[in-house]
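Can anyone check this?
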Amino acid sequence: MIEILSRTELHRAREVGALVADILQTMKGRSMVGVNLLEIDQWAQAMIIDAGAQSCYVDYSPSFGRGPFGHYICTSVNDAVLHGLPHDYTLADGDLVSLDLAVSKNGVAADSAISFTVGDSKPLDSLAMIDATERALSAGIAVAGPGARIGDISHAIGSVLSAGGYPINTQFGGHGIGSTMHQDPHIANAGRPGRGYKLRPGLLLALEPWVMADTAELITDDDGWTLRSATGCRTAHSEHTIAITDDGAEILTLAR
């Protein structure tokens, strides 16, 4: 299903996008050495409920997970890259953390992810990988607009990631979003320009470049959800929800 939002629905999307950005930035600020991943999940839960919003994750039970997910935020650390199930782990100095959050309010969802390091240690390879996903995200957003095609976004993202020397997995990527979190079209993190669905004003997309340092192969944890690099290398993930407008693309989950 591909949805085209009305102006009223787009206003609601802006509201929930701002909420997602606020929660993620708050969780980043609280993600310090000694903090447990389950605490982050509890804090996210409180902010979602206080805002009168609903988690897109708690009851989520797709074919690729051992659902329902049962938590409010994805917490992926070091070699974990996607769908990180919060568990009893205490953050340590130098950990690379990716937080992924999707929330719905007033019938519209928004989805975003950030990666960052914890503590005083700032491993340069981790910072470079985070930067690559952020630049790839910006490149994908820059080419999104009316008349562009999904392949244009995929190509822009993949070009940045490939230039950084990172292998690219196309199994998981960006997606349409609207009244539900995951919709068509799928947006791979590599592709050919000029191909795929043509973008229209009112379309919401979640773009999410993610990489693993030296592999494109994923393995699944025993928890049935957390996806890790097959080699144990570090990973990074960046994501924004954008709205296609008459003038281009509007980022709905940008931190204010």
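Reply from J.R.: I decoded it. The domain at 7-251 is CATH 3.90.230.10 (Creatine Amidinohydrolase).
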